[in-house]
Amino acid sequence: MTNSRIIHAAISAKDKTTFERDGYHLVRPLFSEEEAAHWRNQINAVFDFPAEPDAAAKIAGATHTLADGVTTTENFWPVIFNERLLATVRALIGNEIRYTQHSDLHINLPGGRWHRDNANRDYGVGPDWDETEQPYRVVRVAIYLSDHNESNSSLVVLPGSHRRETRRARTEYVIWNKLRGFLRRRGRNNLLSHHFLTTPRHVLRTQPGDCVIFDQRLMHAGGVIHGPEPKYAIYLSFGIDNQHSRNHRAFFLDRPTYSPNLPVALRARLSENGLLLEDASETIQP
Ligand SMILES: O=C(O)CCC(=O)C(=O)O
Description:
Blueprint: H1 13-22, E1 24-27, H2 33-46, H3 55-59, E2 64-67, H4 69-72, H5 77-80, H6 83-93, E3 97-107, E4 138-144, H7 148-151, E5 154-157, H8 167-185, E6 202-205, E7 210-215, E8 220-222, E9 232-240, H9 243-253, H10 264-272
Antiparallel strand pairs: 1-7, 2-3, 3-9, 4-7, 4-9, 5-6, 5-8
The chain binds 2-oxoglutaric acid.
């Protein structure tokens, strides 16, 4: 790819250092209020809901998710090729980025367990944690489209957990997750906020159009939701052109809900834009 196509993102040297240290970067906002409304309505259309303002009553607090929805729904492809997003990801992890798929569309995903999104989720165990040959540079892009004040939309992260984990922190999230599982089975998930005692946590209270770019190994949880408006989010993923990115994509493609074959037109566009992750082990169907 030639440098002439690379536009510059508003990332300072300090932002980059903070991203390396904490494992996430907040773009506030990536999308304007109008663009966020457009994307909420695109998500409404995917789930056969009317456009705003009628959608909220039809959704009625229920959860709707479409795994790999960005990849499989052409209307969302502009998000993959958003110049500012691409420039920001390049500034954070390196110029040779590729689309690593692992996308989702969410309405009202409820408060979640503490977890990582990478393939080898136990700290220090497996190839994701071995950077002796190649750096791990795979990021999840979470685009939030709802106002914290109306939906309680938030993402809670444990800064630095992509690089280290104490035994006490591990014990603590295991306990919180057990407690959440217990309450969830009794329909009381919302009772439990995402506290953390043994290591600091950051609560990112989102506004429409905010985008969090985070190392897939970062420990995080979707915040508890409540309020009159639904919480909407779009997720996707990029990584630099190396084996870690291939492992990541392969891990998700193994799931029945992910699309093993990229749509032909998307594959062509990714290729034209230098974003196609070539994988020799992949079988491409005509
Ligand atoms: O609700 C959220 O935004 C968090 C979702 C999440 O943790 C995930 O998809 O891995």
